[in-house]
Amino acid sequence: MQSIPDLNTRVLRYFVALAQAGTYTRAAEILRVATPSLSQQISKLEHEIGVRLFERDHRGARLTDAGSEFLPMAINLLSVHDQAIGVVRRHRRAAQQQIRIGFFATVAGSRTREILDKLRNAVPGIKIELVQVSWGEQVLAVLDGRVDVVFARPPLDTTHIRAFPVLTEQRVLAMSANHRLAVKSELKASDLAEVVQVDTDNVPEGWRRWWSVDPRPDGSPVTYGPLVHGVEEMLEVVATSDVVAVTAESLVAAFSRQDIVYRPISDVDPTQIVLITPLEERVTINALVHAVR
Fold first, then answer.
1. What is the pLDDT of residues 21-58, one digit of tens each?
2. What does each C-alpha distance from 22 to 16, 25, 55, 62 come to in angstroms?
C-alpha cells in the first residue's frame, strides 16, 4: 500500500502562489524566495504526490488538470490551517487582556481616538497594540492570528470574517504638486485619461482594480506604472514623478506634504473603513465592535 505524503504548508503556499502568479519569477518575487528554490520545491512536491501539477513552457507555468483540481483544495487546507493557528493565538492574548489591532494606513481615520478611548473605558486595563499590515494581508493577518482585528479597506472576501462599517469617505487622487491636474480643485474619472497610475501586486485582483478605477466608467483601460507595496512607497513615487495614485480622503491629513496634492474624484464610489474580526467572539473584540457602532 502506497503511503500518503505529509504536505508541508510552506510548500503548499509555494504551489498556490505559482498557480496564481503564472510564472516562477513573479511567484518568487511575491514569496520573496529565490526562483531556483521555488522550482526545486515544486518539483519535490510533484515527486512526493506522484503527479505533475504544472506544465512548463516559455510562457510560464500552467496548471495541469490535476493541478487545477488540487488548487482549491490546497487553498482550503491553508485556510483551515491559518484559522486554527489564529484561534489559539487570539485565545492567548484574550487571556492576558490584550488586543492587537492591525491597520495599513490611518487606522480608523478621524474616528481613531474616539474608538480607542471607548475600548479603554469598556475594558479597563486592556493592553492595546497597533500593528501595521500590508494592504494585501488585511484579511490573512486576522485569519492567522497575527492580529485580533484589522481596520481595513474593502473590497474584501468576507467568507471567514465579520465586517463592521466604521467610516465612509471620498476617494481622492494623489499627485505631485507639479502635476498638470493639480490646478483643478475637483476631478472626474474622465480627467484620469492618459495618466499613469501606480500598480501593486500580492493583492486580490478585484481590490487592485477597484482602487485603480479600472476600467474607467467609459470602459477605457488604466495605464499602470511602477509597482508599490505600501502607502509610504506610493507617496514617494507620486512626489517624484508624474505617476498618480487613487487613495482615501483620510490620507490627506495623515500624510500631508508640500510636494503632494490630493484632489477629490467626484464621480466614483466612495470608500469605507471597516473593522474586520474573526468569526469567533472574544470579550475584547466584542468591546471594540461595540465602540465602532
1. 888 888 888 888 999 999 999 999 998 888 999 998 87
2. 10, 9, 11, 6
Pair 165, 251: CB distance under 8 Å: no
Task: Find all residues with CB under 8 Å of 40, minimum gap 6, and list them.
Answer: none
Tell me which residue of 32, 25, 24 sits closest to 61, measured CA to CA. 24
Sign of CA dihedral 270, 275, 276, 280: negative
Query: Could you tell me the maximum CA-CA distance found in the chain, to the nearest angstrom?
Result: 74
Q: Which residues contact 275 (CB under 8 A, 6 or more apart)?
A: 108, 149, 150, 151, 152, 163, 164, 166, 288, 289, 292
Residue 40 grid coordinates: 526545486
Model confidence pLDDT, tens digit, residues 128-139: 999 999 888 899
Give the angle subtended at the CA of 70 by the CAs of 67 and 74, to the nearest 5°: 125
CB 108 within 8 A of CB 165: no
DSSP strand pairing (127-132 vs 98-103): parallel
How far is Cα 178 from Cα 193, in angstroms, rounded to an integer?
A: 18
At 125 the three-state DSSP class reads coil
Q: What is the pLDDT of residues 186-199, one digit of tens each?
A: 999 999 988 999 99
What ranges in 96-171 are assigned the alpha helix state H?
A: 112-122, 140-143
